[in-house]
C-alpha cells in the first residue's frame, strides 16, 4: 500500500511516547504564556497590529510576487533600511521566514568547494542550509572555538563558520568574539543566526553581533527572524552591501519565494520603531530571564543560567517532560517542551520564554506551578 510505511513510523512514535499533535490556540486563551517567542510582548501591541493592518490596506493581502518581480514594495526597502541601521550593518534583505533567510545565507555563502564549519547545537534551519549547500560541512563541538580553528586549519580555500548566537534549547550564547578571531586568522567568513538575540541582546536590543562589536564588519553576516522579539513573521539577512547584492542574485530562497507579506513587513517595522523609541524593553526581557532563573533555582529546579530570554529547565526524561508540560497547562501555564527528535536523547527540557511584559506576580506564579508539577 502506498505510504504504508507511515503507519509503521506512527506506531513506533506512539510506542516511544513521541507523537506530536496540533493544539489550536483560542484568541482569548486563559493560559499564562511562557511558551511563545513573543519576547518583548509586541505581537499584540496596538501599534504593531495597526502597522500590519495599514500595510495590508495599502499593499494588499500578499506581496503578489517574488521579490525580483512584483514582491518588493517601498515598505520592504524601508524595513530593510531601518533593520540594517538598527543592527549596525551596511545592508539587509528580508525573507518570508527566518528559515528561508538561513537557507539563503548558508547556501549562497558556502558554495561548492568551500568548507562550512557548523556548531553541533545549531538550529535545524542552519543544519538544512549546510545540507543544501554544496560545500563540505564539518560539524564541530558545541561552543568550541578551538575545534573551529582546527577545522579551518585543515582546509585550503574559502570557508564560513556558522553558529546560532543564542542556542534555542538551552538559551546559552555562542563565543562570538572567539569565533570571529578564529575566522580572521584563517580568512573565513562568519555567519551567525541572531534569531534569539535581536531585540534582547546589545544596546536597546540591537542584537548579539552588535553587542560583540562585530556588526558592520566586512567578514560578518547575521541572520534573524522577525517572528520573535518583533512580534511579526519573516526573516532577515544583515551584512556588507556586496554580500546582500550577492544573495539577491544567488540565493534560491530569495529568488524563487514570494516576497514577505506586506502585513508582516508593516508589523515588523512598527515593532522595530517601538523598540527604537523604548529601548528598555530589551533590558527588561533580560531582567525577567534572570529573575525566572533565580526563582527556579531557589525552588530547587535545575535551570540553565540564561544568556538572553530563553530559560531552560532540565526534565528527567522525554515522557516526564511531556507530562510536566501538560500538568503546567492544566494548572494554567503554557510552557514549551523540547524532546527528541528536536533535541538529542538525554536532554529533554521545559523551555520558558522570559517575556518583557511579564509582571513579578506572573513570574512568581509560573515558578510556583512549575515547582508544584515537577515530576
Ligand atoms: N533560527 C532559530 C535559532 C530559530 O529558533 C528559529 C525559529 N524557530 C529560526 C531560525 C527560524 O525562524 P522562522 O520561524 O522565522 O522561520
TrEMBL record:
Catalytic activity, EC: 2.3.1.47
BP-aspect Gene Ontology terms: biotin biosynthetic process
Keywords: Biotin biosynthesis, Membrane, Pyridoxal phosphate, Transferase, Transmembrane, Transmembrane helix
GO MF terms, alphabetically ordered: 8-amino-7-oxononanoate synthase activity; pyridoxal phosphate binding
Aminotransferase class I/classII large domain residues: 31-370
Cofactor(s) of this protein: pyridoxal 5'-phosphate
Source organism, top-level taxon: Bacteria
A Pfam family of this chain: Aminotran_1_2
SUPFAM superfamilies documented for this protein: PLP-dependent transferases
Family indicated by similarity: Belongs to the class-II pyridoxal-phosphate-dependent aminotransferase family. BioF subfamily.
Name listed for the protein in its UniProt record: 8-amino-7-oxononanoate synthase
Organism ancestry: Bacteria, Bacillati, Actinomycetota, Actinomycetes, Kitasatosporales
Amino acid at each position: 500500500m502506498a505510504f504504508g510505511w507511515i503507519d509503521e513510523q506512527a506506531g513506533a512514535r506512539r510506542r516511544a511516547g513521541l507523537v506530536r499533535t496540533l493544539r489550536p490556540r483560542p484568541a482569548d486563551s486563559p493560559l499564562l504564556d511562557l511558551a511563545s517567542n513573543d519576547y518583548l510582548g509586541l505581537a499584540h501591541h496596538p501599534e504593531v497590529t495597526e502597522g500590519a493592518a495599514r500595510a495590508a490596506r495599502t499593499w494588499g493581502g500578499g506581496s503578489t510576487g517574488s521579490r525580483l518581480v512584483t514582491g518588493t514594495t517601498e515598505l520592504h526597502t524601508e524595513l530593510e533600511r531601518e533593520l540594517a541601521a538598527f543592527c549596525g550593518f551596511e545592508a539587509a534583505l528580508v525573507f518570508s521566514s527566518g528559515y528561508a533567510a538561513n537557507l539563503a545565507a548558508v547556501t549562497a555563502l558556502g558554495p561548492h568547494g568551500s568548507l562550512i564549519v557548523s556548531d553541533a547545537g545549531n538550529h535545524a534551519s542552519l543544519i538544512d542550509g549546510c545540507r543544501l549547500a554544496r560545500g563540505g560541512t564539518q560539524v564541530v563541538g558545541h561552543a568550541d572555538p578551538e575545534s573551529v580553528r582546527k577545522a579551518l586549519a585543515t582546509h585550503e580555500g574559502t570557508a564560513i563558520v556558522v553558529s546560532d548566537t543564542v542556542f534555542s534549547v538551552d538559551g546559552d550564547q555562542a563565543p562570538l568574539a572567539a569565533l570571529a578571531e578564529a575566522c580572521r586568522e584563517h580568512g573565513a567568513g562568519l555567519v551567525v543566526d541572531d534569531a534569539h538575540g535581536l531585540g534582547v541582546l546589545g544596546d536597546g536590543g540591537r542584537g548579539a553581533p552588535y553587542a560583540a562589536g562585530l556588526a558592520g564588519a566586512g567578514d560578518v553576516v547575521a541572520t534573524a527572524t522577525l517572528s520573535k522579539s518583533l512580534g511579526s513573521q519573516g526573516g532577515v539577512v544583515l551584512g556588507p552591501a556586496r554580500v546582500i547584492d550577492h544573495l539577491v542574485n544567488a540565493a534560491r530562497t530569495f529568488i524563487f519565494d514570494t516576497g514577505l507579506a506586506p502585513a508582516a513587513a508593516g508589523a515588523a517595522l512598527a515593532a522595530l520603531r517601538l523598540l527604537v523609541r523604548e529601548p528598555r524593553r530589551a533590558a527588561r526581557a533580560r531582567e525577567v530571564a534572570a529573575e525566572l532563573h533565580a526563582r527556579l533555582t531557589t525552588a530547587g529546579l535545575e535551570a540553565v543560567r540564561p544568556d538572553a530570554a530563553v530559560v531552560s529547565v532540565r526534565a528527567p526524561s522525554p515522557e516526564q517532560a511531556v507530562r510536566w508540560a501538560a500538568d503546567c497547562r492544566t494548572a494554567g501555564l503554557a510552557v514549551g517542551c523540547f524532546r527528541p527528535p528536536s533535541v538529542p536523547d538525554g536532554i529533554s527540557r521545559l523551555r520558558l520564554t522570559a517575556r518583557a511584559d511579564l509582571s513579578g506576580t506572573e513570574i512568581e506564579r509560573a515558578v510556583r506551578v512549575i515547582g508544584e508539577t515537577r515530576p
